[in-house]
Amino acid sequence: MSAQLFSKERVTNSVDNIDQKFLTWGYFLGFNQYDFNFDYNENLEDILVDKTFGFHLGLVGDMRINNHLNLRLEPGVFFTTRNLQYDESYFEGIEHNDSDLLREVKSTYVHIPLLLKISTKRINNFKPFIVGGVSTALNLSSNQDNPNDNRSGEFRMTKNTYFYELGFGIDFYLLYFKFTPSIRGVFAINDEIVKDIDPNSPWTGNISKMQTRGVFINFTFQ
Questions:
Q1: Where does the Outer membrane protein beta-barrel domain lie (predicted)?
Q2: Which residues contact 90 (CB under 8 A, 6 or more apart)?
Q3: Where are the domains positioned within the chain?
């Protein structure tokens, strides 16, 4: 494989024609790490986010515009977990235990981005590119409609999130397929927190806005 990637001779096979097709298809899999960005009403200690690596997979639909521009649809399913650690200052004067300081936020997203891929000229068997666009995601684990809130241990988020995305990668032309590693940052546009019933809740009362941000590492096969 390494000989194919870095050979000074172009790969000459059916993969050479893939960039000339109007529509092409593929799939991707990879890893993700999601975070939260918080805006606060009062200057208390930051809520700490313990980030973990998640897994995702999905499909690729690519529409060729010209030699350097492609429009892409990449629907996928993303699994992730974030743990929120609250400082004691949030519970000043409120009876609590250690479990109240921690909230585990598990999320399963159906993520659908529409992306514009801007590529350089192909150099032998590889072609760098940048990519950007917008996306929407349905959080299947949001708890938005759950009548219970943090008093019952339920941290709630909105079902729908909207993002803008930016990234880069390299297309590698192999003997039978095109392999593309890439990295992409995603940034939520809307506020995602569902407030507790109590407006002075120690879990949500001091949060004016909560937005997801994350990093995707993708491996695409076309």
A1: 21-193
A2: 44, 45, 202, 203, 206
A3: 2-221
